[in-house]
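To the wet lab folks,

You asked to see what we're planning to order before we commit. Fair enough. Below is the target structure as tokens, and below that is the sequence we designed to fit it. If anything looks off to you, flag it before the synthesis order goes out.
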């Protein structure tokens, strides 16, 4: 399959092109039925001859080019309607009726606050142009009305408040939030890419947009919410997230503080928090990509906390000098796992109230995870006379100095 991407240098275009390359080069194998042979990247720097050649040869078109922040509002129509017309005319001239995807916007619904949007009007005109093209040529057209698009590579201080917040907070710049209660519907780029693959495979998610105030099966629609329908006129990406500006900023502040407090917030698979954190990290300046950790150093070696989680404990690294023994304590309910990654050592555990001792000889040459059992006093000794013993430690809870659950006792 040969893919034409217009607007290839934009936010969505760059993400799409780079990920199509992963499919083309066999690096992404999650879509085994997709075969990408060629990717035609079209943007402002390309010539009309390029467009002619691409349109004569492509098997699928992603039309992502458009205007959303012009100096003159009249540019909306030229950018969102004029070039779309040129693209479709070029396809027709070459007799190419391959599927075409159009990137439109929820503003095209002209519902609610979008009722007088010049941008929305230009997008709606563009949609109708594509639907007319479908009727005229028989080509398959996929028209998507996107909410706020977010993710890595969003241009800050342009048309995305979330992108601006990520950039400014990551770079210690001020932000302005006029109303933290404002709700946003966010479509992250990775979720959009999956839907675009679905469209390439010929099974996009289809929907209608019932008018504001209409009821269908006792559900009231607002004009902006897609209603899934197998024969729907439009297409939509099914995975979006809603959050207030206040919640978004709260999370970004939390992400910003993580290198200082080492606390990683709850980030479950597929969650809004996970996706927003990934986006935030993409804006970190070089001087923040690496950050120092506090090493607690004494004559025995060092102990350094690496990472703390809200509900999955904390990670630390312990370095013991030759011949040194550390630990000699036990816990009631806390448990730990020790993994020696370098050196040669001995882990000993004794059940409180007994004389029975378990011993585990450990080495970085043969990685093992050893449980420190609740109710067992335990120690770790560096058996080497020359090398440090380096141990990765995980505890099931963050250390609480007010309730440490740690009691000294010799093994």
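Sequence we intend to order:
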């Amino acid at each position: 399959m040969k893919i034409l991407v217009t607007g290839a240098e934009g936010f969505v275009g760059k993400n799409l092109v780079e990920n199509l390359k992963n499919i083309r080069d066999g690096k992404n194998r999650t879509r085994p039925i997709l075969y990408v042979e060629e990717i035609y990247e079209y943007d402002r720097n390309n010539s009309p001859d390029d467009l002619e050649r691409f349109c004569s040869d492509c098997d699928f078109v992603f039309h992502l080019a458009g205007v959303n922040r012009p100096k003159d509002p009249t540019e909306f129509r030229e950018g969102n309607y004029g070039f779309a017309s040129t693209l479709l005319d070029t396809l027709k001239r070459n007799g190419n009726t391959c599927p075409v995807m159009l990137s439109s916007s929820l503003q095209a619904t002209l519902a609610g606050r979008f009722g007088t949007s010049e941008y929305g009007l230009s997008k709606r005109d563009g949609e109708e142009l594509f639907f007319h093209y479908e009727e005229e040529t028989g080509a398959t057209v996929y028209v998507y009305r996107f909410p706020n698009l977010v993710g890595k590579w969003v241009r800050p201080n342009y048309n995305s408040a979330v992108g601006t917040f990520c950039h400014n907070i990551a770079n210690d710049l001020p932000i302005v939030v006029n109303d933290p209660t404002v709700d946003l519907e966010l479509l992250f780029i990775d979720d959009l890419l999956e839907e675009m693959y679905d469209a390439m495979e010929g099974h996009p998610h289809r929907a209608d947009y019932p008018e504001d105030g209409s009821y269908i099966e006792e559900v009231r629609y607002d004009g902006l919410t897609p209603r899934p329908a197998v024969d729907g006129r439009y297409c939509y990406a099914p995975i979006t997230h809603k959050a207030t500006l206040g919640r978004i900023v709260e999370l970004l502040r939390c992400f910003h503080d993580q290198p200082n407090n080492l606390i990683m917030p709850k980030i479950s698979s597929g969650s809004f928090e996970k996706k927003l954190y990934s986006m935030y990290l993409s804006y970190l300046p070089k001087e923040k990509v690496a950050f120092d950790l506090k090493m607690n150093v004494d004559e025995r070696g060092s102990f350094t906390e690496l990472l703390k989680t809200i509900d999955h404990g904390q990670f630390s690294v312990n370095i013991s000098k030759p011949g040194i023994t550390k630990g000699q304590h036990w816990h009631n309910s806390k448990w730990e796992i020790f993994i020696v990654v370098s050196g040669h050592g001995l882990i000993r555990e004794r059940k409180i109230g007994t004389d029975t001792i378990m011993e585990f000889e450990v080495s970085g040459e043969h990685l093992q995870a050893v449980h420190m059992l609740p109710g067992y006093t335990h120690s770790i000794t560096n058996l080497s006379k020359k090398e440090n013993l380096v141990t990765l430690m995980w505890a099931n809870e963050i250390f609480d100095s007010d309730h440490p659950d740690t009691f000294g006792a010799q093994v």
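Structural context that might help your review: The chain has a mean pLDDT of 93. The longest strand covers residues 301-309.

Thanks,
Computational group
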